Structure formats: C-alpha cells, structure tokens
Structure to design on (1162 residues):
C-alpha cells in the first residue's frame, strides 16, 4: 500500500517538475526577484505584498468564472461589462434604500441571470461564444450608462467597506480571503466530484460526453450562469473597495480572468487545466501589474504590458498544444 | 439581365434588408420630417463613414474566415500617429502614407500571430488592441492632439458641396472591393478560402497568403478610418467616443457577410452600414440618450448573428455535417 | 512511349501507426487501376500523398519517367494530378459554376467574364447530362449532385491523372452510370485513372488492373480479368475469412423480447420496425447513409423521433436524451471512435468510468468521487479486455485503435453499468485483423452474458457472419431480414441496393 502510494507520489512529482505549472512558478519567482531589485526592495515590503493580495481578489473572481467555462470549452468575454453592471446595480439599489442583504442577493442573482442569457444566445442559435458575449456586453454597457446617468454613485455601507478594505489579522484582505476560499472550493469540485469531472469530459469532447449521458447544453447553462455569478462578485468587490460605482468599473480588468487562466494552463480547446494552475497564473498577473506600478510605469503603458502578457500566455498555450499533438498523433 | 436573375435578386436577403432600411428611414421621417433634411443626411453620412470604412475591412476578413477585434484601436492609433507626424512638421501627404504603412505593419503582425504562431485571432487581436490602446494613451498622455493644418482638413469638406469627402472615400472603397470580390481571381479565392479552407488548399491555393493580405488590408483600412476621422475633427483623439468596433462588425454581419466565412458582398455590406447608421441617427434625433443606441446596436448584432445562422450557415452545414462524418474515417489517420 | 504513374517505395508513419510501408506499383495510361484494401489499409493516405496534401517519409512518385515531388497540393495540380475525395471539396455558398472552375477563370478587360463562365459551366453540365443550374449555390444541391460537381471540377481541369476515392457512395444507379460512362471516355482519351471502391461489382465492371493493400503494405497487383471476388477478398483480408467466423463460440439460447421498435420515423427514417431478444446479436446491414446509425441514434435518444413506438422491457419508452437511455440500460458505442466515442485528451480511467460516476462515490453526502473504486474498476476492465496500456492514467489518444475500441467496450459492459442492450456501430472500423477477431468473439460473449446486441457494420462479410439475424436497410427503411444461416453477401447486397 505505502509502496504504491510512494510510487504514485514520485511519478506525480516527476510530472510536476516537467509541467507547465512548475515553469510558471519559476517565472513568478523570477518576476518577483526582478521587481524587488528594480524597485530597490519596495516591491517586497509587507505593505506592498498586502496590496498585491488585495488586488488579486477581483481578478480571482473573474478567473474562477471564466476558467470553469474554458475548461468546458466555452468562453465569456462579457465578464467586464456584467461585473461593472452588477456593481452599478448594487450601488443604485442601495441608494434607493434596499437593505444590504437583499440587495446583495438580488445583485448576485442578476449576475447569474446575465450569464444565463449569454448561454441562451450561444445555445439557441449555435453562435460562437466570443462574438455572442461581445454583443451582450455591448448591450450591458448601454445599461451601465443608463443606470449611471453620467454620475458615479457613492456607497457608504460599513459591512461592504469592511469586506472591500478590511484586513483580517492586519495582513489578510477579507475580499481576497473570500476569493481564495472560493478558488479552493472550485478546485475540490473540479477534482473530487462528478460534476467537476463532467466539466472536463464536456470540454474534452462534447459529443462523446453527450453519448455517455452528460448533457453539454445543460452544462453550458450552469457554467455561464456561474461565470455571471462570479463576475457579479468581482463587481461587488470593486464597489465595496472604492465605496462607489463608476461606469468604468472593472472594465479595465475584463481580460484578466482569461489571461490568468491561460497562463495557468487552461487551454482554449477545453478539457484541461485546473485551479492550482489558475492560481499561479493569477499570481503572475497580479505581481506583474503591481510590479509595474511600483517601478513607476504609468497605467497607460501597463495596458501595453498586459496585452503583451496575454499574447505570451496564448503563445505558450499553443506551443504546449502543438507539443502534445506532435508527440502523439 | 434576364428574368431569372431579376427574380433571384428580388427573393434575396439583400432585397429584404433594403426594404427594412427604407421602412426604418420612412418611419423616422414620419415622426420628424427634419430627419431627411440635407443637413441631417449629411451628418449621418459623416458619421457612418468612419465605422463604414472599418466595416469594409472587417467584411473582407470575415468572408475569408478571419477576424480582427483590434479595428477600433487601429483606427485611433492611425489618427494619433498621423496627428503626431503632421504636428512634427511632415507634409500631411507623407504623414498619411507613413501612417498607412504603420497600419500595414500592424496587420502583418496580426497575420503573423494568427497564421504562423497559430493563436486564435479573436483573442490575439484583443491583446493587440490592448497594446495599441496603451500606446495611444501613453504617447498622448490621454490628451487630444489638435492638428492645426488647414490643408489636412479635407475630411470636413464636401465634394461638389454636397457629398462629405469621408463618405466619398467609403463609396470608392466599396466599389473597389466589390470589383475585387466579383471580378478578380483573388476575390474568388477569398470566397473559397472562407467557404472551405481544406478545399482551398487542395485546389492549389495558399490560404495563409490570402488571409495575410486581408489582415494587412483590414489594419490599413482601419488606420485610414482613423486618419479620415482626424482630418474631419482636425484633431486626433486617443479615446473613442462609441464602440466603433462593434458597430463595424454589426454593419458587416447585418449586411449579410457570413460570420463564419464564404459569403456576402460589398453591396450587402453597404446596406448594413446604411441600416445601422440611419437607425442610430434616428434614435439620436428622438433625443434619446446615446446609451440607447449602444443597447440597440448590441441587440442588432445578436439579431444579425441569428440571421446569419438561419441563412448562410444552414447551407454551409448541409455540406459540412456530412463531410465531417466521412472525413473522420479512423485508421486512415490524419 | 505511353504515360504512366509509378509509386516508388512510399512510406509514411504516424505516431503509433505505420500507415504505409514501402509501397511500389505502376498505373498505366488508358487503363483504370483499382486500389483495394480494407479500412485502414492505407488507400486514403496514398491518395493524400498523390495530391500533395501530405508528404511521404520516404519514396517518390514518378510520372512518365520524371521524378516528381509534391510539397503542396498546388504542385500536384500543376503536374496534372486530380484527386476526388470522399469528403467533398466544395465551397457551399459559391455557385455551381464557380465551384467547377476554381482556377483559370475566363476574363475580359473588366475582370472575370461571368457570362462565359456560365456558358462553359453549362457545357460541362450538359456533357454530364444533369439538370443542375450553374447559378445555384452548391450547398443547396443534393449530396449526389455535389459529388457530381466535384467530379466535373476534376474533369474540367483536364488532368492527366485522376484518382477517385469511393465516388459512387452517395450516387444513385443513374448517376453511377453517368460516372462510368465518363470514366470510359477519360480512359479512351488516355488518362491514368485510379479508382478506389469497396464495391466488388464496380471493380469488375470498370477497372483493368487491381492493386491490393493491407495494413499499409503492398499485397499484390494483377489484371482484373485474371482474378475473382473471392481471391480479391482473400488478398485484402490476408487469410481465408471462413475460419475466423467458424471458430466463434456463439450464444445459442435467447431470452425474452427486450426491444421492440414499431413504425419508427425520423427525418432520415421511414417506418422502421423490428424486435430483439436478450442474448441475440442483430446485424444492421446497408450501404453508408442507408439509415443504420440513425435507427440506433433514435432509439438512444440522440435524434428526435417523429412517429412510432419503442418498447423496451415491455414498457413503452421515448428517451429525450442519451442520459435517460443509459439509465434504462441501453449503451451505444458510436461509429466514430475518436470523434464521438472517446475523450482523447483524458485518461483511460476517466474514459472508462464516465457513465458510472454516480456509482463511484463516497464521503459526506456521498459527494466525492471514490478514486480507489475508479482505479479498481478501470483495472478490471483493462484485465478483462486485455487492453494494452502502461497505466490506467494513460491519455486515450496514445492508445492504438483496437485498444481505444476496447476502452469503449469496457465502459459499457463493466460490472457497474446496467447495460441490457449493447449497440455497436462500426466497432471494427480501422482496427487490425487480429483485434477484429477478438472483438467478434467479444460480441458473442456479450450475447452469452445475456446482453441483446445490435451490430452495425459496413463490411458485409463481418455483419453476416457475426450476427444471428440481419436486417438490411436502404434509404431509411428496412428492405429485408435474413437469418445468418441463409445470408450470403449476394442476397444481403441485393437488399441493400434495392431501389
């Protein structure tokens, strides 16, 4: 028993060392070291590390939703718009006098409904997810302007403030804690439950999964809704942190989820990757943008850098795929 | 022109679209006769030209099965580059030529990423878009660049005092592209590549070369749109007012360009541009806030995609489903 | 000296498969050469090399003494080679005339001359004697006409070498006659013609020479007139096929009626009725496209049913999705292993356990997958079916075709699934001969174990020798039923080609 376990651990270890995740961890370490040196140590000061952690919360939520969809072979490009819309909606109904808890519930449900509508557009006419969600995000942008009416909406709620800005034991941002907890739960679902397994099966080959009793359409409705749910959480987190909702919202972060997921080894083809990888992708992404800020790169030029990072991630993904299909036909 | 051909035209989707366009225009005219005043029409023409020119490049890419989601960034980038060059004292003609060349380089980069490296173009062009937009903002520090050069202001003038120059440019491009599509071997090859890449390869074409030309073409045309915009405004803005990217795509698909490749033409695309723009200027006239236009054009895109599915794709699928079922004979591994 | 085409020592390997090894033979001008072989023998690979679609690892092509190399399809076309594939290489939204003339368009000063294009297309269509409108988009034509347009395309290219890959599969008799007449003309013009087909009658009707391939190797070349059907089949299969089948240990005792289908209609089927007992192997024969797959897909809940009844275990059922059919005890091993059967990127374990995950759980509220139980089950399946894999975590893509098929069989017949009706759609396609024999015995063993089995195959010898009873289909309906004892290739084929 212990012999086989040991052997299994050993092969797992071997596989890990040559895996992409290990390469990514190495990249993360190198990046951190570089930033630490260039910033003359500011980068690794505790205060900045806490900054990185709290900046990860929003992108973590975005990654979670999109990663699940991507593993199942689908994609959502509307997470920026739907998150912003949900944040705006929350601020609006809070100002209108809604109590916090019902307001939160309604907002999260709104996010899920938006996701469901995305699935509806994708499934009803077999439209490619990327263009369908681009179209719905255009509609949502209109609604954001409609609600905002050219103003930012202030929110002052102590509970939201604690969630958005508060620290546990002085060093752990509450929102990041929630986001990471969600990541762990998703990781367990993916690897330990039937539902999680079915996500991989559908992503690997929807026809085969269907013929083995999994319903890919139903799956896509569930996962698009889940993605909308997490986008809503991302939007809520931003509003809590800023204590206000503006029309830009999380739109600057709209492709962070995809970038982190791809960096973390979740490929566009579907059927591969997992939360551990996604977390590493997220670490790299957050380190990268925080590091650039710390060494004094303006936000404008950071756009350039994040575009390049996405290209880098995509290229790795493609090269990896090519390697697999070359070694085995 | 024989009777059969006339019948075919009447039954076509294009006729239906034209009818819808006329109905939309008539409806707005009925609400407010000012809608069809000379000034109002000219204003609509001015506005449609920028997204219209972009839509043409996108349409050509779609026909051959490519996609570029960086068009609007390329457009803004073109304006910024041209503005900066003119400001630095270069004659505007040279500045325009240089800017178009820069556009060509961007297009070649898009083609390289999609075709040589093998990235999915819809996402790699989004990344490129982010890069370009970052450069735009970084270089200009998010400020407008005024272009105080009266000779460069041709974009705000009218041909024969009637037709806005940008509109004329768009029409000329439409005629050129329509000629290429319908009357040249290259145009034919574009349809073949978009309709069935594998078949294109087996009939001796080089799909990558054709797509490369179209990616470059799209980026050049998009930067041209940016130059025209800068010329009209006499300033280059690094920030876009509306979502011209989505508008361009919507106009193309609305006009019957097959999203998945292989079908559509420029006359249809023109109708799509007209319909979209007369519709949104109608909404503007009703003094609705611009967000209604945003919402409406998003919905229009979804509707256009649904039409695309119902029409062209059904024909395409009739062939594809059966071919893939056979293509996948195992053992005879690929 | 007359023209010829010669393959010289062509080899091509794919990871895990030697698709072609050292193939050499010669095709003469003015003659039709039949290229024969089972599925997976390497015919298509050879044609792809001829058309420049793929490049051989070794060997070369010589045309009339000239060494040729075709790095791209364009080079092959310029050298005068046309290959007409099974998969139609057409552009659906373009018109017929534009599809017929993809290159070399007639031009005026203003560009392409549509009127002349139309006239030339009409002339070609007229030569074929078919009622096709040159302006019609090709996607709107019937499959048969699309195939004919494909042939017109090669015809107008005026190539000196024309290869046909099973051209008659979608054609009716009339269209087949037109095609044969054209092949006759081409032959008279001194073209080099290669003809791939599974239909023996056609081989003897129009070909002059025969080359047989098997498992990627050259078996023999001969004159068509010097051979007969039996000898050809023996050469293709590589042994006297009688033995494999007579050695099968079959199930002799049937149970009660498990499945009854009455008047089943879908968009591809018309009034299909039959019944099946436990322990019985029912063969579904017919040509490709006759509706065999559609029957089982409808039963399985994968396609919509328009009319008719399905009675399973005495109860009327109508499954709206495969999940329900699986719950009731029906299993489908689909016709295309790689596209529909396996999840190639996932492990053997995940591929085996996918329909029974709900029975492999543990922990709080029975929420979590029981990895140990999964491993045990997979190991049992590997042992039972002697699947050659280094570990249960091997990616399915890396297994050979036969082992992949066994993974699917194991998925549906292990102790955790409650399969009562096992549907096998082309289970031996692209599988080597030894594994085929194993699979035949497995089918009989399933019947002995009390499964009712539906066995679909395009290989006539196989379906009439493995099944206890054979239902023959044509064009969406059943044209006859034959018991194994009475079944011959001739009487089954006659029913399959009934008009």
């Amino acid at each position: 028993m212990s012999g086989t376990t040991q052997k299994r651990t050993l092969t797992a270890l071997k596989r890990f060392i040559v895996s992409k995740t290990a390469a990514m961890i190495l990249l993360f370490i190198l990046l951190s070291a570089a930033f630490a040196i260039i910033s003359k140590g500011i980068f690794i000061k505790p205060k900045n590390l806490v900054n990185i952690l709290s900046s990860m919360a929003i992108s973590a939520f975005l990654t979670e939703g999109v990663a699940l969809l991507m593993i199942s072979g689908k994609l959502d490009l509307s997470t920026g718009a739907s998150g912003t819309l949900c944040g705006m909606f929350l601020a609006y109904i809070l100002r209108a006098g809604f109590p916090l808890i019902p307001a939160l519930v309604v907002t999260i449900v709104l996010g899920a409904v938006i996701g469901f509508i995305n699935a509806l557009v994708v499934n009803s006419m077999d439209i490619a997810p990327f263009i369908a969600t681009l179209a719905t995000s255009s509609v949502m942008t209109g609604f954001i302007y409609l609600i905002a009416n050219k103003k930012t909406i202030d929110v002052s709620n102590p509970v939201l403030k604690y969630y958005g800005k508060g620290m546990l034991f002085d060093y752990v941002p509450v929102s990041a804690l929630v986001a990471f907890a969600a990541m762990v739960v998703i990781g367990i679902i993916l690897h330990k439950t039937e539902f999680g397994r079915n996500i991989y099966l559908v992503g690997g080959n929807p026809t085969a999964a269907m013929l083995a009793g999994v319903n890919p359409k139903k799956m896509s409705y569930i996962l698009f809704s889940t993605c909308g749910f997490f986008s809503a959480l991302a939007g809520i987190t931003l509003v809590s942190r800023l204590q206000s909702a503006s029309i830009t919202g999380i739109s600057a972060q709209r492709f962070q989820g995809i970038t982190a997921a791809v960096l973390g080894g979740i490929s566009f083809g579907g059927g591969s990757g997992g939360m551990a990888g996604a977390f590493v992708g997220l670490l790299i992404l957050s380190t990268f943008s925080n590091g650039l800020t710390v060494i004094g790169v303006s936000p404008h030029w950071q756009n350039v850098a994040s575009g390049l990072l996405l290209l880098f991630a995509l290229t790795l993904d493609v090269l990896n795929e090519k390697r697999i299909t070359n070694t085995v036909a | 022109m024989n009777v059969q051909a006339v019948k075919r035209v009447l039954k076509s989707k294009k006729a239906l679209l034209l009818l819808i366009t006329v109905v939309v225009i008539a409806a707005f005219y009925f609400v407010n006769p000012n809608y069809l005043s000379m000034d109002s029409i000219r204003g609509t023409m001015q506005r449609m030209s920028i997204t219209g020119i972009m839509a043409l490049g996108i349409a050509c890419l779609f026909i051959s099965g490519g996609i570029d989601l960086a068009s609007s960034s390329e457009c803004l980038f073109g304006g910024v580059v041209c503005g900066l060059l003119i400001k630095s004292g270069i004659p505007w003609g040279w500045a325009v030529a240089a800017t178009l060349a820069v556009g060509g380089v961007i297009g070649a980069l898009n083609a390289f990423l999609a075709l040589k490296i093998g990235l999915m173009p819809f996402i790699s062009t989004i990344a490129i878009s982010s890069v370009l937009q970052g450069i735009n903002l970084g270089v200009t520090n998010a400020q407008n660049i005024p272009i105080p050069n009266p000779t460069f202001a041709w974009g705000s003038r009218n041909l024969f005092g009637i037709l806005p120059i940008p509109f004329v440019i768009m029409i000329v491009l439409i005629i050129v592209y329509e000629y290429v599509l319908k009357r040249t071997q290259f145009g034919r090859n574009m349809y073949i590549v978009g309709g069935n890449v594998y078949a294109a390869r087996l009939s001796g074409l080089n799909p990558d070369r054709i797509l490369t030309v179209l990616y470059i073409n799209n980026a050049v045309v998009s930067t041209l749109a940016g130059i025209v915009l800068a010329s009209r405004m006499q300033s280059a803005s690094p920030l876009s007012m509306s979502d011209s990217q989505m508008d361009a795509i919507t106009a193309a698909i609305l006009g019957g360009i097959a999203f998945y490749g292989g079908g559509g033409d420029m006359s249809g695309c023109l109708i799509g541009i007209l319909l979209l723009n007369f519709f949104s200027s109608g909404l503007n006239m009703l003094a609705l806030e611009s967000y209604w236009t945003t919402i409406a054009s998003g919905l229009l895109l979804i509707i256009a995609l649904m039409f695309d599915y119902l029409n062209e794709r059904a024909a395409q699928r009739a062939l594809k489903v059966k071919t893939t079922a056979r293509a996948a004979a195992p053992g005879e591994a690929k | 000296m007359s023209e010829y085409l010669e393959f010289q020592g062509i080899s091509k390997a794919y990871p895990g498969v030697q698709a072609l090894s050292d193939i050499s033979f010669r095709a003469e001008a003015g003659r039709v050469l039949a290229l024969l072989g089972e599925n997976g023998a390497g015919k298509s690979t050879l044609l792809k090399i001829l058309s420049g679609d793929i490049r051989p690892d070794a060997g070369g092509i010589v045309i009339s003494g000239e060494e040729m190399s075709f790095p791209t399809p364009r080079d092959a076309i310029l050298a005068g080679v046309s290959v007409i594939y099974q998969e139609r290489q057409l552009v659906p939204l373009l018109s017929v005339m534009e599809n017929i003339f993809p290159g070399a368009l007639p031009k005026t000063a203003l560009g392409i001359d549509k009127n002349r294009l139309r006239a030339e297309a009409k002339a070609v269509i007229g030569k074929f004697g078919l009622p096709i409108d040159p302006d019609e988009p090709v996607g709107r034509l019937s499959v048969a006409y699309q195939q004919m347009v494909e042939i017109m395309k090669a015809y107008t290219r005026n190539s000196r070498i024309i290869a046909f890959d099973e051209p008659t599969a979608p054609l009716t008799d009339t269209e087949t006659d037109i095609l044969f007449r054209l092949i006759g003309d081409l032959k008279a013009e001194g073209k080099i013609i290669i003809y791939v087909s599974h239909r023996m009658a056609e081989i003897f009707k129009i070909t002059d020479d025969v080359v047989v391939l098997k498992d990627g190797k050259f078996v023999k070349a001969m004159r068509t007139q010097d051979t007969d059907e039996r000898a050809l089949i023996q050469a293709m299969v590589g042994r006297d096929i009688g033995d494999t089948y007579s050695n099968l240990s079959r199930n002799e005792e049937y149970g009660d009626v498990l499945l009854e289908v009455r008047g089943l209609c879908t968009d591809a089927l018309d009034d299909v009725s039959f019944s099946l007992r436990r322990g019985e192997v029912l063969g579904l024969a017919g040509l490709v496209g006759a509706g065999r797959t559609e029957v089982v897909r409808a039963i399985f809940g994968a396609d919509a049913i328009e009319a008719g009844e399905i009675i399973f275990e005495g109860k009327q059922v109508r499954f709206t999705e495969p999940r329900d059919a699986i719950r009731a005890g029906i299993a489908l091993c689909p016709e295309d292993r790689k596209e529909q059967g396996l999840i190639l990127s996932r492990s053997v374990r995940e591929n085996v356990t996918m329909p029974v995950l709900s029975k492999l759980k543990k922990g709080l509220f029975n929420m979590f997958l029981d990895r140990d139980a999964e491993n045990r089950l997979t190991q049992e399946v590997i042992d039972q079916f002697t699947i050659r894999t280094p570990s249960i975590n091997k990616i399915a893509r890396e297994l050979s075709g036969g082992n992949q098929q066994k993974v699917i069989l194991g998925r549906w017949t292990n102790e955790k699934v409650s399969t009562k009706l096992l549907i096998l759609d082309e289970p031996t396609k692209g599988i080597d001969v030894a594994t085929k024999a194993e699979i035949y015995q497995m089918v009989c063993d399933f019947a002995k174990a009390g499964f009712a089995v539906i066995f679909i195959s395009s290989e006539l010898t196989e379906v009439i020798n493995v099944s206890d009873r054979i239902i023959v289909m044509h064009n969406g309906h059943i044209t006859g039923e034959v018991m194994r004892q009475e079944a011959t290739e001739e009487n089954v084929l006659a029913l399959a080609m009934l008009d």
Summary: Residues 40-240 of chain B form a domain with the ABC transporter involved in vitamin B12 uptake, BtuC fold (CATH 1.10.3470.10). Confidence is low (pLDDT under 50) at residues 318-334 of chain B.
